[in-house]
Amino acid sequence: MSSFSDDLSQGFDAYVKKLRSGFFGSADLAGFITSQSGIDVRISRFQSRNSESVRVASGNGNPIDGTIRDDIRINFLGIYYLRRSPVRDKRDVFCLKLE
């Protein structure tokens, strides 16, 4: 987790806390090309959003109303190499996944 300054107002701390929660999903598809070598494909997504009305003081002291808004989306696509080696009369298999 990332950290934020201790100087943040209490209201902004709640805003950031809500951004840290969100949706996460992941899917894997793996298959062996040969009896010992294979490929794994992983797709992942994290998504979070939040918005809040704020009031700030301008340079001359007059209040300005506005909205802060964040929409965070992180997509990941990864390809991995798989290796398996039979052990104990080929009844058991040792698998290795290189990421």
Describe this structure in words.
The chain is mainly beta and 99 residues long. The protein has one domain (24-98). It has 1 helix and 4 strands, in the order αββββ. It has one helix at residues 10-20, and strands at 23-32, 37-57, 63-87, 92-98. A 4-stranded antiparallel β-sheet has the order 1-2-3-4, covered by helices on one side. A hairpin with a 4-residue loop joins β3 and β4. It is rod-shaped. The mean pLDDT is 85.
Describe what is shown at a glance:
With 99 residues, this protein is mostly beta strands.
Keywords:
single chain; 99 residues; mainly beta; four-stranded antiparallel beta sheet; 64% strand
Distance between the amino and carboxyl termini: 22 Å
Order of helices and strands: HEEEE
In the predicted model, the low-confidence regions spanning at least 5 consecutive residues are: none
The major sheet is characterized as:
4 strands, antiparallel
| Mean pLDDT across every amino acid position | 85
Percent of sequence in beta strands: over 45%
Helix content: 10-25%
Multimeric status of the protein: single chain
Instruction: Give the CA-based shape.
Output: rod-shaped
Count of domains: 1
Which structural class is indicated by helix and strand composition?
mainly beta
**Cα Rg:** 24 Å
Let me know the number of strands. Answer: 4
Question: What strand line-up does the widest sheet have?
Answer: 1-2-3-4
Number of helices: 1
